[in-house]
Amino acid sequence: MSVRLRVMPDFFFVLMRFYLRIDRVLVRSRKKGTFKISFFSVCDTRLLGDNGKDYMIREWSLREAKVADLEHLPPEVLLDGNQVWESLPIVEVKNEKVKPISA
User: CA 72 to CA 64: how far, in whole Å?
Assistant: First the structure.
């Protein structure tokens, strides 16, 4: 997991990125039988806070692909979560307005 933070006079921005790579995991299914799977998954959470506002905007996104679908990429790209992120298709995105809990 990596976290990046940018603080400016009028706003702040946080990027949290979780990178997961699974290689040759054995999966058993009654319908499909037994097979091995390898895939990449990157989950990003971005927070944007603006001075003078009582809420933050949170964007959560999930990108995933099977390793077989990314074999055209060079090995150094596959080993770097930030580089492989650019080649992964977006699976899901959620945007939310987050308000702090009042005491």
Answer: 16
- pTM value is 0.77
CA distance 50 to 12: 7
Residue 103 maps to a domain: no
Contacts 24+ apart (CB under 8 A), 86-91: 88/40, 88/42, 88/63, 88/64, 89/63, 89/64, 89/65, 90/61, 90/62, 90/63, 91/62, 91/63, 91/64
pLDDT in tens, 2-28: 999 999 999 999 999 998 888 776 656
Give the Cα-Cα-Cα angle 10, 100, 96 (nearest 5 degrees): 80
Report the pLDDT averaged over residues 46-74: 92
Range of the domain at 8: 2-98
